[in-house]
Write a structure and sequence with these properties.
- The structure is a single chain.
- The chain has about 270 residues and is α/β, with parallel strands linked by helices.
- It has a domain of about 180 residues: 3-Layer(aba) Sandwich (Rossmann fold).
- It contains ten helices and ten strands.
Length: about 270
């Protein structure tokens, strides 16, 4: 079993405070889809919810609001800096039914204390996503819900064609594969959930795309955030990374251009009643 430190070594996207701004943009982009997904999966007021790989905690706050005063949300992430920042935000916002834990769920022995476990864009970074899903199952009460969203990086598109986008997608895919991860894990989710012991597995596919600059800026932000990993793997020079960030930013800030996110597969299922 890998330690939190070894996970950090192969993790592709820059973490800590530097990565938080990117996560905030990503959360705004994905929020409408996430709220609809929770409704489809059966989230109800009063539930205890776990958000694994919570990052900046945005979904954890949404889960706390949806669970209401009779429920609660726990955000869990191995990045202690992001967890501390999320705790500070919870205190500032006076959200009393959310807490944040700095840990790697794969290094724990979860108790079945939750009605819903959620993870977004997490399994794509793990060498053993099935192990994580089995831990999610342990954390659920019988009949509890698992909700997963993850990417298929083969789905990016733009208008007009943007060579920097294609190069970014290529580099992201290559560095993920070099580090033993799956940048196209999305279509595997239903099979993985079934193998992990969940039943009544269902799926949906979403792909946000937009012409407004705030949305489009996620791509240069992500290119910048994977730059260290790309250079470390010898896939591109720092000068190429810097050039791609500039080209993606220029495209994002040009009125009328369109960037998409990767295809996002949403899958959910249920722990069988024991």
């Amino acid at each position: 079993m890998s330690s939190p430190e070894s996970v950090k070594v192969h993790y592709i996207i820059r973490g800590g405070a530097a990565g938080r701004d990117r996560l905030k943009v990503l959360a705004r982009i994905m929020r409408p889809a996430a709220l609809e997904l929770f409704q489809r999966a059966g989230l109800q007021p009063g539930m205890a919810c776990l958000d694994v790989g919570c990052g900046s905690g945005d979904i954890s706050f949404d889960l706390a609001q949806l669970a209401g005063p009779g429920g609660r949300a726990v955000g869990m992430d191995m990045d202690a800096i992001k967890v501390d920042l999320a705790r500070g935000e919870a205190s500032e916002r006076k959200v009393s039914n959310v807490e944040f834990r700095a840990c790697n769920i794969c290094e724990t022995d979860p108790e079945p204390e939750f009605d819903l476990v959620h993870a977004r864009f997490l399994l794509t970074h793990l060498k053993d996503p099935l192990q994580a899903l089995r831990k999610f199952r342990e954390a659920l009460q019988p009949g509890g819900i698992v909700v997963i969203s993850d990417i298929d990086s083969r789905g990016y598109f733009s208008y007009p064609e943007c060579p920097a986008l294609h190069r970014y997608a290529e580099l992201y895919t290559l560095v993920a594969l070099r580090r033993g991860c799956d940048p196209n894990i999305g279509p595997r989710l239903p099979a993985l959930l079934t193998e992990a012991g969940f039943e009544n597995v269902q799926l949906n596919v979403v792909q946000p795309a937009e012409t407004v600059s705030e949305f489009k800026i996620i791509l240069p932000l992500t290119m910048e955030s994977i730059g260290d990993a790309v250079v470390a793997e010898g896939l591109a020079s720092q000068s190429e990374v810097d050039r791609l960030v500039v080209e993606l930013s220029d495209f994002a800030n040009t009125p009328g251009t369109l960037f998409s996110m990767p295809r996002v597969v949403e899958a959910w299922g249920y722990r069988p009643q024991d």
